[in-house]
Fold this sequence. Notes:
Helices cover 30% and strands 11% of the residues. It has nine helices and ten strands.
Amino acid sequence: MKATLKTLMLACAMIAGAALSAADFHDWAPTPPMGWNSFDCFGLSLTEAQAKEQAEAMVKHLKPFGWNVFVIDHQWYNDNQKGFQSDARHQFSMDEYGRFIPGPERFPSSKDGKGLKPLADYMHERGLKFGVHLMRGIPRQAVRENTKVKGTNYRAQDIANTRSTCPWNQDMYGVDMSKPGAQEYYDSLFEQFAEWGLDFIKIDDLSRPYATAEIEGIRKAIDKCGRPIILSLSPGDTPIQNGKHGCSAVCTAGNPTASRAPGRTPTCFRSASSSSTARPTSRRTNSACASRSGPSRVPRSSSALTWPSLTTGR
C-alpha cells in the first residue's frame, strides 16, 4: 500500500511538472508585474520586520490598485551590509552547495534551514507575490571554498568563469554554461527558490552585457523547478539586437519600464487580448504613491519596482 501511494505521488508530481513545462511562460505575466522593491529606500539593509511593515502598507495602499509584487533587493544573504554600497569583504550566508540563504539576523524566521519560505508564506497570506534580487553567476565565496554542485560530482571551481565578472559588483563569477555541472548549478538555485515559494526573480548583471548562455540556462532551470517564477532581467534595457532572444527566453526582457524610444527594446509581456507582445507605458513612475495617509494618486500602469518607504513616504 505504501509503495503504491509513493508511486502515485511520484506520478502526480511528474504530471504537474510536465504541465508546467508545457505551459507558455509568457502567460505567467500577461501584463507587466507591478509592485514594490526595497532598494530605493532601504538599500541593502532591509530586515524581516521592516519587510512585514512595508507589506502591510502595500496591502492597504497599493494592492487595491493592482500593485501586488513584493521584492527584496540585493544582498538579503548578508547580515553585515548597511547602506547602498556592496562590500565583497563580508562573509555571505550560503549553504553547502554554494547557494545564498537569508542572513539569519536580518531574517530570523529563516533559521533552521527554513530559508525564505516563512516570509513567502506571510506575503502569500496577504495576497501578495514575493520575489528577490540575485546577481548573475556563482558566488566568489563559493569558488574560494570550492563548494559542491548539488546532485553532481562537480564543484564550484569546475563551473566558474573567473574572467566573467560584473564591473560594478565583486560578489560573483560568471557560470561557464559549456562546463558539466553548470546547468545543474542553476537548476539547484531554482529548485531552492521553488521550495521557498518565490514568484519573481530579478537577476542583475544579465542584460547589459547580454549573457545569452546564462539566460538560456536560467530559463531551463525555471522550467524544471515546477513553479511559475517570473524572470526579470537587469540592469537597464536589453540591447535592441538581443530583443528577439530576450522575448523568447524570459517574461520581462530588459528594463520593465523601458520606453518606446528608438534604440530601446520593449518588454515582451503578452497582451491580455492578443497573442502579440504588449509594450509598457512610455514613462517611468518614480514618486511614492503611498504613505500613512494613503495614496496621493494612482500610479501609471508601469512595472517599476522601485518605491520609497510605504510607511514613511520617504
